[in-house]
Amino acid sequence: MPPGSLPLRRFGHALVVAIVATAIAAYGIAAANPSYAATNPFERGPAPTLASIQATTGPFAVSTTTVASSATGGRFGGGTIYFPTDTSQGTFGAIAIVPGFTERQSSISWLGPRLASQGFVIFTIDTNSTGDNPTSRATQLLAALDYLTQTSSVRAEVDASRLGVSGHSMGGGGTLEASVSRPSLKAAVPMAPWDANVKNFSNDSVPTLIVAAQNDTIAPVKQHALVFYNSIPTTQPKMYLELAGASHTATNHANTTQAQYEISWLKRFIDNDTRYTQFLCPTPSTSSTISSINNTCPF
Predict the structure, then answer these.
(1) Can you tell me the distance from the alpha carbon of 75 to that of 85, in angstroms, rounded to the nearest whole number?
(2) What does the pLDDT read at residue 199?
């Protein structure tokens, strides 16, 4: 044996052991501390602040394109796509939003540029008939998402694995029904939801933020929103936000309280962006604009 070869081997073995131990320790630190791990590839935009999620315009410039009803094959009534013009950060998660009974997409159009400017592709749609029931609206929501990811002119901007649904009134009921039909969705935001036929959503596994209105006489919360919320399992992320003194159509107009929670919810669950958890957990307190609030923190 050449002089010094045995100590050299021992040194090499010790070095390998040290490297492995360091790697294991680093893995443990990363698991315990997400900030140590690799950056979330779905994060879009700068670190959020309360001011940034309450702002009427986010960090992304937005453009629009119109989808004619004739282009949908009768699956839904057409709509408007709002999308970020900056694609340098990669693809975006997407949300389809449907209006309520007798309403057109104009009733929920304020959400298009507001949410898209935060780094989402938003598709506000019309239904085939303004009288379509929640089940039909659920089907049309999912058809709109399929059109957005497979056919639309902005499909290359959309990450088809990160999709969500939202809707007002009967569209809110449709949002909940769509979530049960397609559990691969990442988030749902029913607004003042109404559904006379389906009351139990115990099979819903999609993270759901229900935005309700305290003085809703069309879809009273004790018969609709609260019933729906309580039926969703407590083992999954869910949140109930009741707007103080608000009527059924409160979510048809720009609303800062709704926007800040909706943005945070979509960022947290469609983008998996834990930078927004701070605005959701621990459960916020009621205020002059919030009459009731509840969720299943931590998440």
Answers:
(1) 27
(2) 97
Q: Which of 190, 254, 252 is nearest to 226 (CA)?
A: 190
Rg for the chain, CA atoms, rounded:
23
Q: Per-residue confidence at 184, pLDDT binned at 50, 70, 90? A: very high
Q: Which CA distances in Å does 65 have to 90, 205, 251?
A: 20, 32, 23
Q: How confident is the model at residue 5 (pLDDT cuts 50, 70, 90)?
A: very low
- pLDDT reported for residue 257: 98
How much is the average pLDDT of 25-49? 62
Q: Which one is catalytic: 132, 204, 224, 248?
A: 248
Stretch 163-180: mean pLDDT:
98
The verdict on whether 168 is a catalytic residue reads no
Residue keyed to tokens 């969500």: 164
Question: Cβ atoms within 10 A of the Cβ of 191, count?
Answer: 33
**Has 253 been annotated as catalytic?**
no
Class of domain 50-295: alpha beta
Lowest-pLDDT range of 24-28, 100-104, 140-144, 229-233: 24-28
> How far apart, in whole angstroms, are the C-alpha atoms of residue 132 and residue 101?
7
Beta strands, E only, 170-269 = 187-191, 208-213, 238-243
**CA angle, corner 103, sides to 148 and 62, nearest 5?**
40
User: What is 255-289 written as a DSSP string?
Assistant: -HHHHHHHHHHHHHHHS--GGGGGGTSSPPPP-SS
- Of 126, 159, 204, 216, catalytic: 216
Question: What pTM did the predictor assign?
Answer: 0.87
Rounded-to-integer distance, Cα 14 and Cα 22, Å: 12
* Residue 40 per-residue DSSP state: P
Active-site pick, 169, 179, 264, 291: 169
Taking the CA atoms of residue 176, residue 135, residue 164 and residue 203 in that order, the dihedral angle to the nearest 10 degrees is: 40
- 248 is a catalytic site residue: yes
